[in-house]
Structure formats: structure tokens, C-alpha cells
Amino acid sequence: MVNQHHEIYDVTIVGGGPVGLFTAFYSGMREMKTKIIEYLPFLGGKVPYFYPEKMIRDIGGIPNISGEKLTEQLVEQAMTFNPSVVLNEQCTELEQRDDGIFVLKSDNGSMHYTRTVILATGFGTLKSIKLDVANANEFEGNNLHYTPKRMAHYKGKHVLISGGGNSAVDWANELGAIADQVTLVYRKTDFSGIESHISKMKNSSVNVKTPYIISGLSGKSGQVEQAELRNLETMKTESLSIDEIIVNHGFEIDIGPISRWGIQMENGTILVNGNMETSIPGIFAVGDIANYQHKLPLIAGGFNDGPIAVNRAKQFIHPDKELTHLFSTNYDFSK
Ligand SMILES: Cc1cc2nc3c(=O)[nH]c(=O)nc-3n(C[C@H](O)[C@H](O)[C@H](O)COP(=O)(O)OP(=O)(O)OC[C@H]3O[C@@H](n4cnc5c(N)ncnc54)[C@H](O)[C@@H]3O)c2cc1C
After folding, report:
1. Comparing C-alpha atoms, which of 97, 66, 87 is closest to residue 21?
2. Which of 9, 264, 247, 2 is nearest to 113 (CA)?
3. Ligand 1 center from residue 296 Cα (angstroms)
4. How far apart are CA 202 and CA 206, in angstroms?
5. Which stretches make up the FAD/NAD(P)-binding domain (predicted)?
6. How far is the CA of 92 from the centre of ligand 1 (A)?
7. Could you tell which of 12, 25, 46, 303 is best to mutate to test the pocket of ligand 1, judged by most ligand atoms within 8 Å of the CB?
């Protein structure tokens, strides 16, 4: 069903990654009515998508934290001021009405009305490259995964991994220690990626098969049971019984819709000034998508972008009011 959200928000943050989440917290603390719109069915952006179980060690004051824990804490912090959260929607169109209100339209037809927009879209929406096997979607989300589940899920199982990049090799190495058996197929013979990780995999119990692809799948009740593997040199096929499949063929980034909104961009990123203002007044960009001199694509850097954008958004909405700086230690969280 298409929702028409006629309520007007002060700030609408497109993208619920780490930077969008922290920006939502800060926007709430500046007492602005805030909404987050996220394409994925979950919040956290690249962190839970790519590295939920990896340790992050380059955020000040946090010596180490897993991607999953960081996401959990960011979501908790972002919800402090109860922003509206819309999941499973890709913002595809943006217009500005004569009265200055921005109208964001999503891929499902929903409309969102807002005084300012903060784009925290990373490099765009993340879409995994799908396995090129006709019936693959029958098993997707059951025991065929594009974004792997928690490690413990694979304990004692026979896991088939398809792919040859860093992520596929990392997964093979990590699962080698926990799964009953790991088989990795890759269509080329030379792996790209970090050499030490590749050597570790080749010298481990992981059954590495190159140049091989998954050419067929069979199973029942939505569960893959057998994978057909094709040797691309001999073109012979063989069958393998498996419990789980992880497909790691990379992902496509769809910056698409935003690049058509008339905002000045460079190499797939949005040009901003020191106030995180884009070329369209009232639209700001923060995090990985924001491009300014000496920009580093780090989570910690994005945490600085957000408050700057929020403060400017507040001034944009209330041009006559003087904006004083606000520390969280000065804010009354009991009200
Ligand atoms: C493997 C890997 C390891 C990393 N390790 C570290 C590390 O150790 N330390 C560190 O600081 N950084 C690390 N990074 C970088 C870090 O993940 C990024 O800098 C960070 O995620 C940027 O946050 P963001 O919120 O700007 O964007 P993202 O995390 O990319 O989130 C953007 C969100 O916007 C959504 N979106 C995009 N377009 C739309 C749209 N049109 N409509 C609705 N939603 C949309 C996307 O679905 C996504 O969820 C790593 C990155 C990778 C890939």
C-alpha cells in the first residue's frame, strides 16, 4: 500500500547508515522533527551489511567494538528523540514546492515532506550481485545468503562459498574454523585481494576449486541440498551436497536517483562546502557521500559532518534566530 505522509518534517535524513543515525540523534537534540528513510530492511548501512562481526578500532574513545554492537548502540542513540523511521524505501525523486517544502518520493510511491534534506546515502543503495542460476531466488534468505548470517549459524555445516574477492576469502578463512566443511568455488584461477589471506585459505582445510562456478541448484521446501559445480576448463560438472551457500560476487551501488536531482556531484559523490551544504539550498550531505577537501571515508569523520549539517539546517529553517552551539552535556535529557 502506498503511504502518503503529509506531515512536514524539519529534517529528513536519506540513509540510515552510521552517519545518518548519529545525524538523527543530533537533529533530535536540536529539537527538530526528524525522519530517517532507509532502502534496506535494517539500519546501520555498510557496517552490518559488510562487517557485522569485525572489530572496529578507529573511533575515538572506543578501543574496539564489533560492527554489530556499534550498530546496536547507534540505533539506540538515534532513537533517543523518537525520529520517524521508514525502512525498505529507496528515495528516487526530489522536488521543491513553491513554498520551499521538499517532497521526496520513494520507489513504492510514498511521498515525504520536509523543510530540509540531509543526504547520508553512502555511495548509494547496496544491491548484492545475484547468483546467475535460474532457480536461485527460491532458496534466497533460507540457506542461500548474499549477506552472511552470524558465524554460529554455520557451526558444524557444509558451507559452499562462491566468489574470489576479499570478502569471500575472509569468510572462507573464518568459517574454516567453525563449519564442518567449507568449499569455495571461484570462476578464475587467480584470486584478487590480500595475498596473506589467500595463502592462509589455500593452506587451510578449505576445499578451494578453481576455475569453477555454481551451475545449478536443487533442493526442496526452499532449502538447497545439492549444488552442481562446473569446471570452466573441462566443462565437466559434479554434484556437491551442502547445507548453506554464501554468494559473494560483490555488489552494485546504485547512486542513480540522486544523480538526477540536479545537485552538483563529482565522481559519484556530492560536493559540499564546510557547512555540508550542497549546491541546492536546504539540501545537505554527510558521511561517505559528502565530498570536500581532505575528506576521509571514516565513520568518525561522518560523526563530525552530521552536527555541522544539522546546525546549518536549523539556521536554514530559522534564519532570524541566532544559533548557539549545543553540547550534549548542556542538554536536559530528563525533559
Ligand atoms: C569492509 C569494510 C570495512 C570498513 N571498516 C571500517 C573501519 O574499520 N572504520 C571506519 O571508520 N570505517 C570503515 N569502513 C567504512 C565505513 O563503513 C563507512 O565510512 C561508513 O559506513 C559510512 O557511513 P554512511 O552512513 O555515510 O554510509 P553507509 O554506511 O553506506 O550507509 C548509507 C545508507 O544509505 C542507504 N541509501 C542510499 N541511497 C538511498 C536512497 N536513495 N534511499 C534510501 N536509502 C538510501 C543505503 O542503503 C545505506 O544503508 C569500512 C567499509 C567497508 C566496506
Report:
1. 87
2. 9
3. 13
4. 7
5. 9-295
6. 19
7. 46
Q: Phi first, then psi: what are they for 107, rounded to 5°?
A: -60, -20
CA 125 to centroid of ligand 1, rounded, Å: 10
Can you read off the three cell numbers belonging to residue 198? Answer: 589467500
Residues with Cβ within 8 Å of residue 31, at least 6 apart in sequence: none
Domains of the chain: 4-126+252-330 (3.50.50.60), 130-249 (3.50.50.60)
Q: How far away, in angstroms, is 298 Cα from ligand 1 center?
A: 9
Residues with CB under 6 Å of ligand 1 are 14-20, 37-40, 45-47, 50-51, 56, 58, 90-91, 120-122, 124-126, 257-258, 287-288, 297-300, 302
All residues at 6 or more sequence positions from 141 whose CB lies less than 8 Å from its CB, including other chains: none
DSSP code of residue 293: T
Cell matching residue 113 = 515532506
Cα 211 to middle of ligand 1, angstroms: 32
The angle formed by the CA atoms of residues 173, 228 and 167, to the nearest 5 degrees, is 25
- Ligand 1 atom nearest to CA at 45: 49
CA dihedral of 275, 281, 282, 283, whole degrees rounded to 10: -70
Nearest to 35 by CA among 110, 116, 123: 116
pLDDT tens string for the chain (335 positions)?
445 558 999 999 999 999 999 999 999 999 999 999 999 889 999 999 888 878 999 999 999 999 999 999 999 999 999 999 999 999 999 999 999 999 999 999 999 999 999 999 998 877 789 999 999 999 998 999 987 777 889 999 999 999 998 889 989 999 998 999 999 999 999 998 788 999 999 999 999 999 999 999 999 999 999 999 999 999 999 999 999 999 999 887 777 789 999 999 998 899 999 999 999 999 999 999 999 999 999 999 999 999 999 999 999 999 999 988 899 999 999 87
Annotated binding-site residues for FAD read 38, 46, 51, 126, 288, 329
**DSSP bridge pairs for 95:** 103
CA nearest ligand 1 atom 48, residue: 45
